[in-house]
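Q: I have 418 residues here and want to know how they pack in 3D. Can you give me a structure?
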Amino acid sequence: MPKIAVPAFSFRLVVVCLMAASVGLPMAIISLSKALLLLFVASITFWLFRSRGPLVPLRASATPLAIAIALAMLALSVSWSEVPLAQAWGAWAKHAKLLLVPLLLLLIRSEREARLALLCFVAAQTALLLGSWLLWAGVPVPWATSNRALVEYAVFSSRLDQPIMSGVTAAICWHLRQFAPGRWGRRAAVAVVVLALGNVLFVMNGRTGHLVAIALISLALMWELPRPYRVFAGAIPLLVLLAVWLGSPTVRERMEAAVQELDSYTKIGSTDSSSGERLNYWRRSVESILQHPVAGAGVGSWNAEYQRLDQGRGPVTAQNVRNPHQEFLLWGVEAGVIGLALLCGILLAVWRDTRRMPVAAARAAQSVLAALVIACLFNSSLFDATIGDFFCVALALVLALGWHTRPPSGTAIPEASA
């Protein structure tokens, strides 16, 4: 296995690798890395637009344009948002982390740079993973900053974010194992996959992380099936779910708890649980969308709409909640059907771009995309800090690798998806 050829020193590449590694670190480092990235791009904007080379991926890719249109629409909605201007622009800035995708595509200029950035990304996620295992084993981890690190085994973030991140990292390592450097690179990549999935399914108790892991395992198994047998692919998720249900007490307990919480909300309207809170947020979000169906109530307006419609019937903690824990509903409340269409447009643009990639990169990118969609169904995963930055950076890195490993123009690309 050839080693990664490290390019000559470049501050541009340092900024990229720091951003790639930061999403496995505390929020302060993520924010610092984003600020450094934005300052660097702002300082060399003229040079970037004079140099044709790095702009080619942006012109040929549908994702940057879809992101630009969506953010422009959200910015426009500030004009009719019902919240103070500063609050509206603050919410827009949280959406604007999507700009990490085109910015990283702009700065990564070759396959070896994409591979080096991915190596930094995986190294940071592996360190995060090892820290979680140490916490589970009762070994002190002095650098763990999570408030519930000793209980939930999340090093820097939470039981919600970290298992999703580990599941996505497992999928990236599996599908891109051929790119792993060194003689033992492939084996190391597979070891990370085993450690990550074991941690998600048997240690962490984040239910969204469990669903993400089950979905990504199912996709990987489906893609490994010979083409004649792919007619049976629909049974794979059910078989994986059954195996995980029987084999993991953690998954079984969390899913049974979800069923009980759903039953409690359905029968008596209880919001004293994670599921009950979410269902109440979702209900009020749907009501708001029905009242502002076309263009929504404006960016940053979700909490104001929730308070207006709920009138104190939900949990007191919702006073400080700024999103409904569901990305699609958030965009619907803020920008109506137009916002929903724009968010779906971003996801479809990413899918379109993956279809033009070599198989390994396409499967890695499609796995990240699938995890993002699942996470967005149960959380505001693009809006939220940490996990939103993680998904934007992960998407950018696999898209960059896919772009730079494409065969020459006119060469057929093997089918990348089922």
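Q: Anything worth noting?
A: DSSP finds 19 helices and no strands in the chain. The chain has one domain: 11-404.
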